[in-house]
């Protein structure tokens, strides 16, 4: 079975879809059905709720997940009340979502639940910590990758990325776009010193000098003409706490003093730059690092788009795997093959 | 008046609360809703409790203290659930979980305190009966579901569910009906305990607050105050923790101040930058901390209980509210004058009143205020730069600028004449000499 053994080496895993219908839920179901529970306690939650208003109204749009007996799960109060299994509550947290607080429970029978979980990165981290108190070995996060979600899946140790024809129906484009996201996910971590300094800063653009002193750069936005501040020559690290967009990256690249600095972003989900700008920055000697990083274990593909378009599964897997140097799986196809 | 109403007083009360290591959000909410104590016996009793906790913090090793703190982190605000229980609503799984969690938590905390001979300090109602109702298997762990033990039929259904997964949906519907019946029954059984559960929740919040206050007392070097018997207030080596922390940050020291005042008015004069405003800030802070039962930032403190505390300081926000600084200030001080007509015990701390208007009228307004308060139940402490006839008021003066350093000590003086040091101080600040020379000329004329 692909990548199940890999997963067991980590305490947390997020499964992230690049687009709706890229098979993220399929992947989650695949993992939840196969993961051995004899020696591992697992807990599962979702951070997808914030981006999808429809389920906040109807409560039913999101797919139900089938849990096996003994699995733990974190979901909102509203969704807990709709559970279709017998479960034992182990924690009611202070994390509140639009659907009530996040509760954690243990499934006592097999059955279906709706998942919704913490809606901020800090909340997700607190939930992951709380699961450890209940002896959870592995927390699995149904991750959203959208500007709408405030919770970043990058706080998990490991990650599986789901991509597919829904993201792009052209095979080459799909491979390139996915490879770019993989490149961002694999950006190296910044130094330990920078991590300690920068992690508490949640907004603004900050300059860190060679001697470790740092100051916030006011007025550095996508709209400002150019970046200029006192002691620019001394600047060693530039930290962008919020979103990194093309305009800002271009200004850094065009600035003689800043071109060679280490540009730090919070995690890959905060990078909203085009591949062109990113690669120009790297080519001109720029270095980009992150504060939080997940190890990408595998990529799954769904070659079918919701509009009915079908890509060649084998070709897609091979081409993508060559581009990203990681195993790529079409889970449905592999299952079919095993059955036949 | 509740703590939350004065928490943003410019005296810096919020800093003290922010520095308090409370373990639960509920304890913070509970604390913010405490009324200001105006009864001497009640204040005394509160400090009696705090002394017990201080002793407890000092003699108990950190492992035990941290265990207690860790447990208190589990305290949740379940007031809505208690309300539902009281109104005979049927609690759902989550609410029953909350009740069980609180019951087990309060039993744990009670046991921890008992082990440290602290059982008598804050009474925690025993909730063993509640635990028994919600823990039919006697597991003693804070988890909950509608246990099989409540209902044989339910046990049977769930067993079938595991054996026949294809029939699960149908069986679940039946099981839900049975679970509802069990929860109705549990809610009925728990109803009589609603008050005890609420008291337990409050007791845990009180313990969290007292533990945090006792810890803060040691960390910040605060003292236990004595409730004044004769209406006078004395502070020895009083300091302002927030200002002190800010000074430490720039490698400077806070010079503690001694001050005493009674029913009479007190007039503080002194050079600019002599710390007069900080004295008023600290006096306000200490008075509020005292009447809400916190440690006092001083080496020794004897404090008179007041019914109302007014702190009037030039307010930056007045412009935003569309008032001139003079109008805002006058309205503020007017509240003190109005209140002084009642028989309530008042402490009014007023920083440089009428400073923004012309000095002739300003002096008249301040002198009149001083006279007006003379025979009223108001302890007025006021700073000013105006030359005032102090009447019977008690006059203090900041020692001031000597040999290039500022001495913040307050000394008793006979009259309220304001010191004429502004030009010297301006000079020490490196202000343009030509300008200052001109000013000296003007003074001579």
Describe, in plain words, how this protein is organized in 3D.
The complex is a heterodimer of chains A (340) and B (445). In chain A, 29% of the residues lie in helices and 27% in strands. Chain A has 340 residues and is an alpha/beta fold. Chain A has a 9-stranded mixed β-sheet, with helices on both faces. In chain A, strands 11-10-12-14-16 form a 5-stranded mixed β-sheet, with no helix packed on it. A two-stranded antiparallel ribbon of chain A has the order 3-7. The model of chain A is unreliable at 55-60 (pLDDT under 50). With 445 residues, chain B is α/β, with parallel strands linked by helices. Chain B is built from 17 helices and 10 strands. In chain B, α3 crosses α11.
Throw out a few tags for this protein.
heterodimer, A: 340 residues, alpha/beta, Rossmann fold, Cytidine Deaminase, domain 2, 2 domains, 9-stranded mixed sheet, 5-stranded mixed sheet, 11 helices, B: 445 residues, MutS, DNA mismatch repair protein, Chain A, domain 3, 6-stranded mixed sheet, 4-stranded mixed sheet, elongated
Mean pLDDT of chain A: 86
Number of strands of chain A: 18
Q: Name the chain pair whose interface involves the most residues.
A: A-B, 20 and 20 residues
> How is the main sheet of chain A built?
9 strands, mixed
What is the CATH topology of the largest domain in chain A? Rossmann fold
Describe the strand arrangement of the main beta sheet of chain A, using strand numbers: 5-6-4-2-8-1-9-17-18
- SSE series of chain B: HHHHHHHHHHHEEHEEHEEHEHEEEHH
Please identify, by name, the CATH architecture of the largest domain in chain B: 3-Layer(aba) Sandwich
Q: Which of globular, elongated, flat, extended, rod-shaped describes the shape of chain B?
A: elongated
Approximate helicity band of chain A: 25-40%
Instruction: Assign the structural class of chain A, choosing from mainly alpha, mainly beta, alpha/beta, alpha+beta, or little secondary structure.
Output: alpha/beta
Q: Which stretches of chain A are low in confidence, meaning pLDDT under 50 for 5 or more residues running?
A: 55-60
